[in-house]
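are you around this afternoon, could really use another pair of eyes. what follows is a protein written twice so to speak, once as letters and once as C-alpha cells for the fold. i want to understand how the C-alpha cells follow from the sequence so walk me through it. anything you notice is useful, everything is just below.
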Amino acid sequence: MRFVMVPGGWQGGWVFDAVAAELRRDGHRVEAVTLAGLEPDGPVDADRPPNLDAHIDQVAEIVGRGDGTPVALCGHSYGGMVIAGAADRLGDRLDQLVFIDAYVPDDGDSCWSLTSDAFRELFVAGVRADGRWVDVPEGLDPRARPHPLASFLQSVRLGGGLGLVPAPRRTFISGGAWPGSPFTELTERLRGDPDWRVHEIPVGHNIARRDPHALAAVLAALPHHPA
C-alpha cells in the first residue's frame, strides 16, 4: 500500500515520522506531505498565503504521480479538508480514504464553518499580527509554523467525485472526546453510517504524536483492494 499523509494545521510531514517508520518496516510506501506555506524555513512567499485550493492542488498532484500502487490518502484535522478535495478529483484512483480526527466536509463547508467556537477564537487571536498567518498555538512542536488563514476560511468545492471512493473504503479515526473537540458529534454520526468504518484511539487530537504505534496498526490493517 502507498500512504499519502496530510498533516493538520501548523504542522508538517514530520508529524507522521514515527507512524511512517512503522509502516515502512511493514513494507508500505509512505509520503508525508508538508503543505505549501508550512515549510521548515518559512513560506516561499509570505505575502501570498496559500488557500485551500492550493493545498488540494498540491496533494492531488502528489497522488497523481503514482505508479498504480493502491493509495490510502490520509488527513489529520485540517488535512481532512484537503484530502476531501483531492479525493473529489481522484476518487477512482484511491483505494482508501482515512480521516484522522479530521474535518469531513460537504460541498461548501470550510474549516471555519465546521470547527468549534474555541478554534475560531484561536484563529482570530492568532492572525492579529498581519491578518494573513495564524500564529502557532502554545504547546505545539517547535517545528510548527504559522498557518495561512486563507486555507482555514475558504470553502471546499466538491462535485461528487468523493463518492467514487466506495464504502467501506472510508475510515474515520477518532482521538476520543478530548476537551473542545469539534469532532464528537461527527464521530457519533459516522458510527451509524454503514459507508464508514470508525476506530477510536482515545489519546486526544494529535494521535500521530501521542500513539504512533496504534495509528500505524490501524492503517496497516486497512483492507487492500487490488486494481
Q: What stands out?
A: The chain has one domain: 2-220.
